[in-house]
Design goal:
By secondary structure, the protein is α+β, with helices and mostly antiparallel strands. The protein has a six-stranded antiparallel sheet. Strand 5 and strand 6 form a beta hairpin. Helix 3 packs across helix 6.
């Protein structure tokens, strides 16, 4: 009996951790920063995936207009501006990422059908394709296989979509993951860790660039920078 107690205790602990994850951690990760209306909202890209697919909706506010946020989002990709996340972790899994600290004009013309690489070394399995895009508003990515399905009029298995909303001077930045590997803890946890860092990385860059632009304009007009 004595030998069974440690095993029973370990089993009970595992059950408790699993219950905590399902009841508290998972809902928090799935809706990080988003309000109820944003979680329920129908967004561009949702129509590409079946309606009952599991999904995450994460959000944060950026103190900069959409036009100052979009250029950072437009240039994401392993071979472009990176993902503004934990680059050491990305490199540890084979992605040759360097996160950009500047906006590159040559990476700004994003079109449907363009490739966004996660990690070239893994081939098509790590290639995303632009399924829908409207500058300053949204960017929707799907796998290469899903892009072919969408072109045939079929539903994609999954989509990764980025949305910008807000008035002049600020932006509400939403990221929605639908279907695919969403719903599997081994994907959900690292995806959350990297995605929230990516979102915060874009916020830091957009806000800094916007402040610098405002200061430059005020200086050109001869006004004090804190006006």
């Amino acid at each position: 009996m004595g030998k069974r107690r440690p095993l029973l205790s370990a089993l009970m602990a595992a059950v408790g951790v699993a219950a905590l994850y399902r009841a508290v951690i998972k809902p928090w990760m799935y809706t990080w920063g988003a309000d109820d209306d944003e979680v329920r909202a129908t967004l561009p890209g949702d129509e590409l995936v079946r309606a009952d697919a599991p999904r995450t909706t994460r959000a944060l506010t950026i103190d900069a207009p959409r036009a100052s946020v979009w250029p950072w989002l437009a240039q994401i990709g392993e071979d472009r501006g990176g993902f503004y996340s934990y680059w050491r972790l990305e490199r540890a899994v084979g992605a040759r990422v360097t996160n950009a600290e500047d906006i590159h004009p040559e990476w700004q013309d994003v079109q449907v059908g363009d490739t966004v690489w996660l990690a070239r070394r893994y081939g098509d399995a790590a290639r995303q394709v632009v399924a829908a895009v409207e500058p300053n508003k949204y960017l929707v990515l799907v796998s290469s296989d899903d892009y072919d399905r969408v072109r045939r009029g079929e539903k994609a298995f999954g989509a990764w979509a980025f949305h910008l909303d807000g008035e002049d001077g600020w932006t509400r930045f939403l990221v929605r993951g639908s279907g695919g590997a969403v719903g599997h803890a081994l994907f959900d946890i690292p995806q959350f860790v990297m995605e929230q860092k990516m979102m915060r990385g874009i916020r830091v860059r957009a806000q800094h660039a916007h402040r610098e632009r405002v200061i430059s304009v005020l200086a050109a007009r001869g006004a004090p920078a804190n006006a």
